[in-house]
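Hello Y.,

Per our agreement to keep a running log of every chain we model this quarter, I'm adding this entry. I've kept the format consistent with earlier entries: sequence first, then predicted structure.
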Amino acid sequence: MSAPHVVLRDVGEADRTRLRDWRNLPDVSRWMYSDHEISPAEHDRWFDAALADPARRYWIIELDGEPVGLANLADISREHRRCAWAYYLASPAVRGKGVGAFVEFWMIEHVFGVLGLEKLWCEVLIENEAVWKLHESFGFRREALFRRHVWKGGEPRDVVGLGLLKDDWAQARAASRERLIQKGYAIA
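Predicted structure for the entry above:
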């Protein structure tokens, strides 16, 4: 059995409505900092600003030719040689197939190889243990615990801050690559 074919492609105008629909899904919004219903006007403001901002990049994650999620870089700083990242899979049906791990590997390679940055960081709600553990399996280290950092559903939530240095990746890359190969992914 071969691994699913995963591709990351640039977000385009044709993705505008899809992204709003995905972002409003309960399985997606539960892990975001905000969880209100995003209106078309609010989404349009975000979408237009996001695609125009050189400090941000967005990709649609495709699985076997079908759009299934979003990955992004934010706060890209050449001066400080770092950026933040995040991703989500919109459909629970695609989870558990190694898609998230493939996306993580691809994004790390892009940040350190293509962009030539020195640090990649992210923030994850503490209750999203599967995701912060996935990041740690790729060499990310917990750098912070932001207590009562966001409010969701009227309750405070803690957030884990994780960071990966280029040197950390040099040590973790081979094992991360091997895990993906074992799942059937063709990784250079």
